[in-house]
Amino acid sequence: MPKKIGIVTDNTADIPEKLKKALGIHTIPTNIVLDGKVYRDGIDLSSAEFYRNFHHYKTMVSQPVTYEDYALIYKKLTYEYDGLVFVHVSSKLSGTYDIALKVHDDFKDSHNCQVVIIDSLQCSMAYGIPVIAAARMAQKGRSIEEITHQVNHILRNISAFFAVPDLKYLRKGKKISGFKSLLGTAMKVKPVMAIENGENVVKTKLFGEQKNMILAMLDMIREDIAGRPITLAILQTAAEVSIIESLRDVFQAEFKCVDIFDAYYSPSIGLNMGPESTGIAYYKHPLRA
Asked: Is the distance from CB of 85 to CB of 54 less than 8 angstroms?
């Protein structure tokens, strides 16, 4: 009889709610502090509510889940499953992964569940895509070793680009590597960014309209993909006028898309990226002979 394997992530993965429920993905909420009040992202605070009131908040900061809250979820799930695969946001962007390791170290001798904890070194659907793949494999009865191998394979072949129309939110959150290099250009610069080695880095600096940023993203993606099939996620904030449909049309026309996910940035990402950001994450499938 196949072992029962559970898949766990945090809500920064931005996996659509319906998909999480359909695949049985367990999600650990991060905390959002708005004007001094703590909210559990996705539980006490919805994305729609957050973006609707975005410009009314005087102070905004994200925090990893507390040790106590993580431990409660960990202990519950280790008694429900034979094996668990945890996949978390980059340890260079959040403390969630370190808390996961600490909790596991403290409680690993209290259960018989096989536990794997993975630092994705990614953000948003750039690790949401491998989590979805893992959950589909778990539903098919695949082993924890097979699931872990596939998650790591996808993470090695995934890329993400983000168009950030306003740098002031990243500046406040200090979530950008090499940020000092942008200071001389004033805050009118509109960067296209990527995640490299677990950190936000600037790929190109633009001035002008957001559409130019999106075109720049598409040029970089086209060069990176080089004809390979992709699994794609298109990301935006709940406050932005929807561009998902138009981007979907472009990708379906120009690229070999195996699957396309439409997703929204969670508040824990939106408070750093700003309310008008757009992103693309994609897994490059192997070329078949």
From this structure: no
Claim to verify: residue 17 and residue 147 sit in the same structural domain: yes
More confident residue, 51 or 70: 70
DSSP 41: B
CATH number assigned to the domain comprising residue 278? 3.30.1180.10
Q: Enter the pTM of the model.
A: 0.89
| Segments forming the whole domain that contains residue 233 | 158-284
Domain count, the chain: 2
Residue 92, domain member (yes or no): yes
Name 283's bridge partners: 158, 231
**What pLDDT was estimated at residue 200?**
80
Positive or negative torsion for Cα 33, 34, 38, 40: negative
**How many beta carbons lie within 10 A of that of residue 143, not counting itself?**
15
Neighbours of 163 (CB within 10 A): 25
For residue 105, with 0-12 CB atoms within 10 Å meaning exposed, 13-18 middle and 19 or more buried, which class applies?
Answer: exposed
Q: What is the pLDDT of residues 61-93, one digit of tens each?
A: 888 899 999 999 999 999 999 999 999 999 999
Pairing of strands 158-163, 278-284: antiparallel
Q: What percent of the chain has pLDDT over 90?
A: 53
Chain Cα centroid distance, residue 75: 24
